[in-house]
């Protein structure tokens, strides 16, 4: 009997351990978040997609996964002292080929790591095209900003309720696979929830992805960036559930400073995951020094001009495809020559590459 009791006790302890391990981890404390942030050098980089990809599917599908371009263009970033990139994933590429997708993510991380570049991965996105299809992606529409960029999951969230099961599996598979990977800085769970006129309809998915993200029990922090002060319910949820505070701001230095001052009140590290729109007075020369001074991690939109057409402004298409006099985003041409040598000098002075 004693042996049976001991065996039952051992089984009970083992079961409790499994249950405890399966429990979603809580939000990091402010102290834990600050300790994590201080353990890294100042992170500065760009939102990255290779110039040969029009969208996330073209970047991540096997037939168009372009390691040569990825390596070359991350080399451009490293040459000016950038040490981190923010990169968008897409669940459809995973759904098509889960193991291949994980392998390609690992390959990307290996390339970035060789250049001393950490990665923020973005899981869901409410921006640009509502529908998507696997396979060959469309050609860019001349002069139109992000003409082929894809929402994830897009409009299917309304027409296919069972999609949540797939999305849940996707999030858990990707995040648990890489939950301890030190090459990953942060999981950005949802880019600009509420954009594309979804508004508060995006709140249920936002809540779900945070729940799923906690289930993955990652050693990296999780977050979703605030971007529109009018989306009060979404902002409240994002700010009260993120381990570290992420945000977007494409305004000048005065407004950007006001945003930083407002977000400081939450007592968590700040990461600006999108800035730099030249036509809106958000430049490297005025914003990047501010972010360094305030110890805010800094990710501008765009690295190399390419199929995303982000040298064109959101609201100023140029259907003839002519090069705009002032680029909206991006730093380099595909051959590695900079849009502005003066900007490169500024960036290098701030990253210590001079």
TrEMBL record:
Key words, A-Z: Carbohydrate metabolism, Glycosidase, Hydrolase, Polysaccharide degradation, Signal, Xylan degradation
Keyword NAD belongs to the record: no
Gene3D superfamilies, per the entry: Glycosidases
GO molecular function: hydrolase activity, hydrolyzing O-glycosyl compounds
A GO biological process held by the record: xylan catabolic process
Residue ranges occupied by any Glycoside hydrolase family domain in the UniProt entry: 144-301
Residues in the signal sequence: 1-22
Family: Belongs to the glycosyl hydrolase 5 (cellulase A) family.
Protein known as: 1,4-beta-xylanase
């Amino acid at each position: 009997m004693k042996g049976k009791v001991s065996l039952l006790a051992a089984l009970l302890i083992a079961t409790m351990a499994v249950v405890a391990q399966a429990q979603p981890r809580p939000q990091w404390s402010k102290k834990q978040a600050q300790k994590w942030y201080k353990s890294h050098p100042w992170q500065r980089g760009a939102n990255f997609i290779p110039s040969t990809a029009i969208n996330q599917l073209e970047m991540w599908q096997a037939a168009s996964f372009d390691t040569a371009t990825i390596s070359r263009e991350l080399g451009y970033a490293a040459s000016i002292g950038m040490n981190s990139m923010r990169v968008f994933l897409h669940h459809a590429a995973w759904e098509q080929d889960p193991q291949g997708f994980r392998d390609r993510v690992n390959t990307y991380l290996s390339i970035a790591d060789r250049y001393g570049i950490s990665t923020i991965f973005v899981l869901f996105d409410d921006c640009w095209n509502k529908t998507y299809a696997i396979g060959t992606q469309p050609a860019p529409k001349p002069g139109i900003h992000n003409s082929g960029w894809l929402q994830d999951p897009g409009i299917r969230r309304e027409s296919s309720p069972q999609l949540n099961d797939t999305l849940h599996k996707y999030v858990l598979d990707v995040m648990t696979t890489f939950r301890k990977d030190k090459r990953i800085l942060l999981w950005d769970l949802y880019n600009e929830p509420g954009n594309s006129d979804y508004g508060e309809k995006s709140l249920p998915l936002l809540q779900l992805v945070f729940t799923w993200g906690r289930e993955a029990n990652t050693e990296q922090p999780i977050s979703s960036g605030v971007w529109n002060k009018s989306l009060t319910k979404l902002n409240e949820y994002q700010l009260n559930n993120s381990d570290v505070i992420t945000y977007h701001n494409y305004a000048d230095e005065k407004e950007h400073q006001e945003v930083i001052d407002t977000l400081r009140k939450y007592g968590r590290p700040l990461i600006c995951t999108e800035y730099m729109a030249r036509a809106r007075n958000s430049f490297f020369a005025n914003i990047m020094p501010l972010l360094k001074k305030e110890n805010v991690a800094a990710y501008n939109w765009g690295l190399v001009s390419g199929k995303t057409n982000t040298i064109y402004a959101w609201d100023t298409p140029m259907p003839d495809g002519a090069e705009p006099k002032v680029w909206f985003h991006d730093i380099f041409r595909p051959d590695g020559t900079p849009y502005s040598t003066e900007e490169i000098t500024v960036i290098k002075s701030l990253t210590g590459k001079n």
